[in-house]
Write a structure and sequence with these properties.
about 325 residues, alpha+beta, Beta-lactamase, eight-stranded antiparallel β-sheet, globular, Asparaginase_II, L-asparaginase II
Length: about 325
Amino acid sequence: MVTAPIARDAVELALVVRGDLVESVHLGHLVVTAPDGSVRTARGDGNVVFWPRSSVKPMQAVAMVRDGLDLPDRLLALAAASHDGAVVHVAGTREILAGTGLHESDLLNTPDLPYDAVQAAIWRGAGHGPARVVQNCSGKHAAMLATCVANGWDTATYLDLDHPLQRSIAATITEFTGDEAGLPVTRDGCGAPLFATTLAGLARALGRVAAAPGTAPGSAEARVARAMSAVPEMVGGPERTNTRLMREIPGVVAKDGADGVFALGLPDGTGVAFKVLDGADRPRSAIAVAALRAVGVDTPGLDTIGESPILGGGVPVGEIVAVLS
């Protein structure tokens, strides 16, 4: 029988309010880590072990830079992306591949339509179906191939757990999260190895990456942080929460993940991570903005980013409200 220990100690993170009533509730876990990596505050279980999904992409990119990946900022940001599948993302992926002498047929990520609905409609309207190059992880996979080429590693097996690239990524994630080695491993939706972390570990890792331009300016993590915050549109897309936050707050490193995961780091090393238990994306913006305000970060633009209206007949009749106290 399958059990769900992640559900233990879960708390309300967001309420969906329609009219004068709470219509539904999103439970989950949220943690804030201090610059020294210690847990500052937690709602639910800050040490819950879970699948961080694409929120670990900044650390995957750090491992690749350490292993010799050398890309300009806009392409390094794409290496850490779950992108919309827009023309600029597809072109960037192809540019990374062209620099290695490889082709999109060498990608081993799962074929899919673009993540963004508008981009998917444009792609299908041009007569295309699911393809690896437009799938949201294609930039990461192209960068993985480029790292293999730089090191003379086999490119046909780059997703194998015992491949030098994946061993390096696993070690980097363990180092940055501070989690014990030996946590569960599976496959992410794109086919890449997925390493479990604790929620506090994920927050700690993003905090370290975001602080690196100030604390370790010549490091691989500093390069990744600068690239993501300099070209946030390559990390997601213009309407994505992580892109909007990085555009709004200088030096923030933010990354979303499937199934209700979100993490961000501040330039002072503070980290925030949360997991919405039901896997929903809709409360993500409200929770992220409330968490930023709770740690003392507030700018006028956060009002718009945090707005999550509930519509009735096409007009707002309620909203999603974060619950962080």
